[in-house]
Amino acid sequence: AGTITVTISYDLIDNSTGKSIATGTREANASYDRTGQVFANERAERDAEDRAAREAAEAVRLAIASDLKRV
User: Fold this and answer.
1) Residue 66 and residue 8: Cα distance in Å, rounded?
2) Of 31, 28, 56, 54, which is closest to residue 44 (Cα–Cα)?
3) Cβ atoms within 10 Å of 46's Cβ, excluding its own
4) Cβ–Cβ under 8 Å, residues 37 and 12
5) CB 27 within 8 A of CB 58
6) What is the model's pLDDT at position 58?
7) Is 18 left (phi over 0), alpha (psi -120 to 50) or beta?
8) Helices (H), 23-70
9) What pLDDT is stored for residue 20 in this prediction?
């Protein structure tokens, strides 16, 4: 088995002042199974990367929405 980790950092900047409103980092993991076939392993790893990226992006979206509520 393998695990993919995706880490996203963001910095929310106020355009009018140029100052940082909020910063953060979000991380997501996705596991995948390895087999004896090279193509299957590459495909499984790519699918895991896609899953982890979608999950991390959703976490950033929610974090930014929360940050904007406080502004």
Assistant:
1) 16
2) 31
3) 12
4) no
5) no
6) 98
7) left
8) 38-69
9) 96
Q: What is each CA distance from 30 to 7, 10, 37, 62, in whole angstroms?
A: 12, 21, 20, 19
Residues 6-62 have pLDDT tens digits of: 999 999 999 999 999 999 999 999 999 999 999 999 999 999 999 999 999 999 999
Residues 6+ apart with CB under 8 A from 47: 32
Chain position carrying tokens 């982890």: 52
pTM above 0.90, yes or no: no
Is residue 71 scored above 90 in pLDDT? no
